[in-house]
Design goal:
With 198 residues, the chain is of the alpha/beta class. The protein is 27% helix and 18% strand.
């Protein structure tokens, strides 16, 4: 059963339109932005910019084979990356989104390998975090979302921690993370398998 939608507790600090426009511009230019999510700070970039994704992976010291998560403010922003699903699966998604549940969905054949890794599926989420959702809206589409930390290190939970642990980022959007104690659960929408628990 999907986790409950995020209630909005621990509301993030309001970010100016100027800051969001600046962050979106950096993403369009191939830069990397750190921003708060439902549980931790994330690193984001343009998912269709291979060099930007490579840079995120270098900051993370993460293998491309593992694949990455995409977040969006609306499901429509994810449609270029994932295949259409059955009505039953769509209902499951609608019940949990916007919210702190990441689903594995079958990837479109055109979805870049640098996002999918070695998988035929893609991890995606329609975020309930207001600042993260606003960033997607300002950018005009889905963005990469991976925790702001080198592999094997604790994820950043503040802007300062994000800056210290990921010194290569171009901009850190300041704001509060959501109330989750751990990164969002990851579930396979087709099989129901839980890959990462709540």
């Amino acid at each position: 059963m999907p986790a409950a939608k995020w209630s909005g507790a621990a509301r993030p600090t309001r970010v100016s339109r100027f800051a969001l426009r600046r962050a979106a511009g950096i993403l369009r230019q191939g830069g990397v932005v750190a921003y708060p999510t439902e549980a931790v700070y994330g690193l984001g970039c343009d998912p269709l910019n291979q060099e930007a994704v490579k840079y995120v992976l270098a900051i993370k010291q993460r293998s491309v084979e593992k694949g990455l998560i995409l977040i969006a403010s609306r499901f429509e922003q994810l449609k270029p990356f994932v295949l259409a699903v059955s009505p039953e699966i769509q209902e499951r998604l609608d019940e949990s989104w916007p919210g702190p549940v990441t689903w594995l969905l079958p990837a479109r054949p055109t979805a870049p390998r640098w996002l999918r890794g070695k998988h035929d599926s893609l991890a995606v989420r329609v975020t309930a975090h207001p600042l993260a959702a606003a960033l997607c809206e300002a950018f005009g589409g889905a963005i990469v979302s991976t925790s702001a930390n080198p592999a094997g290190r604790p994820p950043a939970r503040s802007a300062l921690q994000a800056r210290i642990r990921c010194p290569g980022v171009d901009l850190v959007l300041r704001g509060s993370t959501g109330p989750l104690a751990r990164p969002t659960p990851i579930r396979d929408a087709v099989t129901g398998r839980v890959l990462r628990g709540a």
